[in-house]
Amino acid sequence: MKRINLIALFVFVGIVAWIFTFDNEATNKIQSGAMSLLSPFMKASGETKEIYKDIKAPNRSKEELAGENEQLKLANDQLRIENDRLQLLAKDNATFRMALNLQESSALELVSARIISRRTSTWFSTLVIDKGYNQDVSTDSPVITAVMNESGRSDTGLVGKTTQVFADESVVILLTDEKCQVAAKIYGKTEQGICMGQRGATERTPYLKLRFLPKESQLEPGTPIVSSGVGGLFPIGLQIGYVKEFRRLDYDAEATIQPAVDFGSLEHVFVIVETGMPMDEVPIIPVQPMEAKAEVSGLPDEDGDLPVRKAEVE
Amino acid sequence: MIYFLFIVVMLVGAMAAQEFMPVMDFAQQARVLLVPAVFFASAVTVSYPVMLILALMAGFMWDARNVVLVESPVDLVAMFSEQKAQPGTEVDLPFGYSILLYGLLGSLMQGVRPLYMKGRWELPTVMVGAVTFLLLLFEYLFINFRRGDFYFPQEVWEKIIASALPSMAIAPLVFLILSRLARWAGYRSRYEGLAYGEGHGR
After folding, report:
1. Can you say whether the dihedral through the CA atoms of A10, A15, A21, A27 is positive or negative?
2. Which of A12-16, A264-268, A297-301 has the highest mean pLDDT?
3. Structure ipTM over 0.90, yes or no
4. Phi, psi at residue B17, to the nearest 5°?
5. Under 8 Å between Cβ of A133 and A167
6. How far apart are CA B88 and CA A126, in angstroms?
7. How far apart are CA B77 and CA A211, in angstroms?
8. Cα end-to-end span (Å), chain A
9. Could you tell me how many CB contacts below 8 A there are between chain A and chain B?
């Protein structure tokens, strides 16, 4: 080998060895820079795909759109009523906790986010959303979306969790990835296990594995699986999916799960962020509607208006 | 020097264009891997030290975008089994792995440089597909190694092949662009040989 090539090879190996010593903080800083540089391209790519989808979508008549609008209004009213009821329950819960001298739990707030890039890495099921630490998103925040359960009612489906958070973007690792592990339980029963994706899974075979189930478990296909709250990362009761197959192994049992969320058609998600405030001090606006052009946070002022954190004028 | 700058611009452009590459749902969600394709094609046209510099740049850019750090504050598997708890940040593919793989596979590409110099693009084109296949295979093997077991469903092979084939398909186009750029820049690819000493490999 020529001397210059040998020298180049040694220098190359030295630089690679130095780069391998980068810790997570350094890696995050580099990736944060790359993300801010590539973010305009990701957003442009997402918008291009939306335009392409609009072109491909069949034209609908005015009547059809009016009907759909009416249905959405109805659904919106129903959800508002349900939301009000749940907020009252949350307040009651906070009051009872205080009365019982239980530790105050932090309030949870939902931040709506748009998916700007999906599945960019070959071997990881990830997507990039347009909210980051500037919007209070932190690492390991659960990401959810609305799903229809078997009875046709709207439910909360688990999408995954944030794994890297930058200024205005976050990387979400999906439930279908082997690295996203969720403590899960069979709905209405006590048996628990760990739900995780499968290595090399694609949207054609996006099944999850529910492992470490007790050997005596008996699961029928179609049984709902929800998050159990064990480990404290994911709230209890989030829809994970439905049992597809069940197998007994030598020491325990495992099930194949069909996810409740259709990961291929996701466009918007919600990130659960902790406000850090006790439940009884938090203003009652936990969910920001998708259409909202302004994000709100903090306590209401004297007139009851919420402060605007970031106005998005389009 | 100008030709080298052209390649750097092409790599940066490929990085931006990669964001617009859709996944192929019919092929296990494989994608056209533009950055590796541009790098491997460029690797044939430059000398070995320049190829290593390009490997550094392309690998660094690729990892800055694609390395995934997953934090595990609680080791759930340890809670449900008798394994020892290992909470913390896990990195299956550490930052810099692409640089190493690009350098290694770029060295393989240098092996077909004499053919490229003679104006024969057939084997270099096939090699771009082959090294893209190897790149993905090494990545997947490394993930398996880190996770402690080897799991190779058919979908993985389909995905690797479906990603390598489009890279091979666009390679002639990249070679064409590179040859035009070389002409504009007045760059003449000259094969210096890998053997040590004057006169060898010329």
Report:
1. negative
2. A12-16
3. no
4. -65, -25
5. yes
6. 19
7. 9
8. 60
9. 170
Note whether A27 contacts B196, CB cutoff 8 Å.
Answer: no
**Two tokens, residue A220:** 């029928």
Q: Does the distance separating the beta carbons of A163 and B69 come in below 8 Å?
A: yes
The model's pLDDT over B49-89, given as tens digits with 9 standing for 90+, comes to 999 999 999 999 999 988 888 776 666 666 666 666 566 66
Q: Cα torsion for A13, A16, A21, A23, to the nearest 10°?
A: 180
Q: What is the pLDDT of residues A187-202, one digit of tens each?
A: 888 888 889 888 877 6
Q: Model's pTM, two decimal places? A: 0.77
The pLDDT value given to residue A231 = 78
A45 in reach of chain B (CB within 8 A): yes
What are A256's strand-pairing partners?
Answer: A209, A245
Q: What's the CA gap between B69 and A27, in Å, rounded? A: 9
Write out the H or E segment, with its range, that includes residue A7.
helix A3-20
Q: Of B48, B67, B155, which has the smallest distance from its Cβ to A31's Cβ?
A: B67
Q: Which residues of A282-295 are buried (b: 16+ CB within 10 A; e: fewer)?
A: bbebbbbeeeeeeb
Interacting residues of A96 by C-beta distance below 8 A, sequence separation 6+:
none
When mean pLDDT is compared over A10-24, A47-61, A142-156, the highest value belongs to: A10-24
* Alpha helix positions (H), chain B: 2-18, 34-45, 48-66, 76-80, 97-110, 113-117, 122-147, 154-185
- From the list A246, A267, A312, A8, the residue with the least C-alpha distance to A146 is A267
The one-letter amino acid code at A13 reads V
Q: In chain B, which residues have their Cβ closer than 8 Å to the Cβ of A42?
A: 19
